[in-house]
Write a structure and sequence with these properties.
Layout (H helix, E strand, L loop, with lengths): L10 H10 L3 H14 L4 H13 L3 H14 L4 H13 L3 H14 L4 H13 L3 H14 L4 H13 L3 H14 L4 H13 L3 H10 L8 H13 L3 H10 L7 H13 L3 H14 L4 H33 L17
Helix pairs in contact: 1-2, 2-3, 3-4, 3-5, 4-5, 5-6, 5-7, 6-7, 7-8, 8-9, 9-10, 10-11, 11-12, 11-13, 13-14, 13-15, 14-15, 15-16, 16-17
Length: 328
């Protein structure tokens, strides 16, 4: 005879139903009520961690995900939430550890491969990151975010033709996706095909004219064409945004043109701080540093030559008065 298990509450089911329906506040209350009765439920602890993720309370996500894992170390959902929170906190090594553990349990898990790819990309392991994102796509063909990450890595390494192929696939999945269209235009621009780039941008709905990605690309194109007035106008449109590495690169390029060298370097430093794998920022900063060192070296050499020329000049004769006076 099968054992009859009496439920202590329906709060857990109601919580998961609310979570599925996007009713975060309601789900939170149901989970809290349930955990008062049964604080050892790995599923409900994971559910509460999910609520914390939706509320962007990352430290709490980790607390509840880890609590869930105490009762079931193989709780894949809790590991996914943990990896995602750690990636968001830029704790890439810890995120990679959580992702690997998750994939040891469930290898063919698109979301797990995606989190692994995010960690690897930010640990400056682009080839391994690409493999993880490609696995995510293999397990979930329409995985939009994974496709976009592949495109971003290819663009970062100047493989614009391959990136174009990726964005074409995205547009096959989402015909009118704004970001895929703008990045397609950006690839054309970086391949010196401004005709196609402009056509794509001009065909966008007017409501997208002030979109941040559109503004950045318009600014980039204006600078390439030495249209510095419009470049400055586009930068002014984004003046209140201070969390985007590419924008700081564009600001640095604009400041270099104005010979505001110190400010340009500050912007490049900020770009690298925000995105340490941004190769455009790295290359400009390296070039900037080499130029500065060359100028310093030239100035030092010039100063040294001037000092040496003074040292080896024939001493000038001491001036004497043409009139001599007898000793008294």
């Amino acid at each position: 005879m099968a054992a009859i298990i009496k439920r202590i509450s329906k709060e857990d089911l109601e919580g998961f139903n609310a979570l599925k329906a996007g009713k975060t506040k309601e789900a939170k209350q149901h989970f809290k009520n349930y955990l008062k009765l049964n604080p050892n439920s790995e599923q409900v602890l994971e559910g509460y961690a999910n609520v914390m993720m939706r509320e962007r309370k990352l430290d709490s996500v980790l607390v509840y995900a880890d609590s869930s894992l105490i009762y079931n170390p193989d709780q894949v959902g809790a590991l996914l939430l943990k990896a995602s929170a750690l990636n968001t906190q830029k704790k890439w090594n810890e995120a990679l550890t959580a992702s690997n553990k998750m994939l040891d349990i469930k290898e063919e898990f698109a979301e797990g491969q995606f989190q692994k790819g995010i960690a690897l990309r930010n640990l400056n392991k682009p080839n391994e990151a690409l493999k993880a994102f490609q696995k995510a796509i293999a397990y979930k063909k329409d995985y939009y975010q994974a496709h976009m990450q592949v495109g971003a890595i290819l663009m970062n390494y100047k493989n614009y033709k391959k990136a174009l192929e990726v964005y074409k696939k995205v547009l096959d999945l989402r015909k009118d996706d704004l970001y895929a269209q703008v990045y397609t235009a950006k690839c054309h621009h970086l391949l010196n095909d401004n005709a196609n780039a402009n056509k794509i941008l001009n065909d966008l709905p007017s409501s997208h004219a002030n979109n941040f990605e559109v503004v950045k690309l318009r600014c980039r194109m204006a600078m390439q064409q030495n249209d510095w007035n419009n470049a400055g106008r586009y930068l002014n449109m984004a003046r209140n945004i201070n969390n985007n590495a590419e924008l700081f690169v564009l600001r640095a390029q604009y400041l270099m043109k104005q010979r505001r060298v110190d400010l340009a370097k500050q912007n490049l430093d900020k770009a690298v701080e925000l995105d340490r794998v941004n190769r455009e920022a790295q290359e400009l900063l390296k070039s900037f540093t080499q130029t500065a060192q060359a100028v310093t070296s030239t100035n030092q050499k010039k100063e040294q030559e001037e000092q040496q020329s003074i040292m080896f000049q024939d001493p000038k004769p001491k001036k004497t008065s043409p009139i001599t006076f007898p000793n008294k």
